[in-house]
Fold:
Amino acid sequence: MDLASVISNGIDDRSAKGIAAAIGRLVSSGELQPGNRLPTVRELSRALGVSPTTVSEAWQTLALVGAIDARGRQGTFVRQPTGPGSPRRYRRVTEGPGHFALDLSTGTPDPALLPDLGPVIARVSGQALTSSYLDQPVLPALDERLRAGWPFRPEELTVVDGAMDALDRVAQVIVRLGDRVVVEHPAFPPVLDLLEQLGAVTIGVDVDDEGMVPEQLAAALDQRPVAVFCQPRAHNPTGVTMSRRRAKVLADLLQHHDARPIVVEDDHSGDIASGKLVSFGQRLPARTVHVRSYSKSHGPDLRLAAVGGAGDVITAVANRRLLGPGWSSRILQAVLLEMLDDPATLDAVAAARDEYAARRSAITSVLDTHGVPFTGTDGINLWMRVRDERSALLTLAAQGVGAAPGEPFQVRDDDPHIRVTVGLVPTTEQRLAGRLAEAANLQPNRSGQR
Ligand SMILES: Cc1ncc(COP(=O)(O)O)c(C=O)c1O
Structure:
């Protein structure tokens, strides 16, 4: 049976919606396979006895959800469906032997350096915050406060449950199956998992000590990506903060290239980063989505991040969220609002920032004397080049020290690295830097056990 007949047999409702739904069912049941060429609009409209406009509308709906791929004269094809989400890379970062005396694999802030939530919670606990399900998702006073501190004037702004929630929701709005997306190389593993799950093709752009390498971004833009995902400061894992000078060069490229991707900035470290925040939103406000997490500065369990910028993207995120959780806890929003101007919190965040910087340089100064290559100057993570990833991790583990393997962060094959969350190491700890240097210099185990 030809495909036009298979399709017309599977259709009971001949509206555009009905045709799209029937094709969706045929794909799910396997009667239509990825790669199958669908009949032309004309053929199918004839077979179904409907107008070509109706079939075109059905095709548009299917293309929008990434079920089919229109390739001009070659025809329209069934696309490969994406599988259930698998945090493959993310799991690899966290799957080490565990139970380390000193676990530096986590990328998390030091709980001892987080501001005390207690007094703030006591102050907000008496407030009546949710009177109706129809209230604004963001407390109006928080909205105003966040906009006042935003690195550019956002067209829209909302609050979600952490930076990863923001990246997930934004990616679902702007990335479709088969789309190209620029990411930094190396990148944060859950973001790579997320993009893979959406069926995106990632293009890695190297990060040097000032940010993304302009020549590589220019070449990547020629591949017409729909989005560029980046971290403007305290980049995880490299510790790089983008310089103002580099931001200008990259913004010129982004502004003048006709690919016009959406730039998604993940400011995951917020105020514990020492470097000044530069945002592409200052130049491209309608094409930038900026994410600001409060996890590392105010506490991961506040589970709050703000996302603001390109109005169409943020509105789509907020609208979709209304059909799910609706809003992020207004109690936690009130806690964050209170903390943003609370003198004790401001002092605690500033002290944490200084302490992380001191901890980092206590270690990097020793690595320097041993000639160990590492990158960056900012944030809680250190990206250290090693001769052999596995030998380095095993040696550290034998000494009770956990570190993250570099491979899950890498978009393409590269020199072996490990990521060490040096922000968790007090400056009084003298031996760690020497151990890291020793681990970095270990040769691969030649016995065949890699
Ligand atoms: C680069 C990056 N993005 C996002 C996150 C997640 O942040 P949040 O806790 O706000 O979801 C992290 C956490 O370590 C991160 O390093």
Observations:
- Residues 107, 162-164, 188, 231, 236, 266, 268, 293, 295, 300, 305 surround pyridoxal-5'-phosphate (CB under 6 Å).
- Residues 169 and 401 are 35 Å apart (CA to CA).
- The first strand starts at residue 68 and ends at 70.
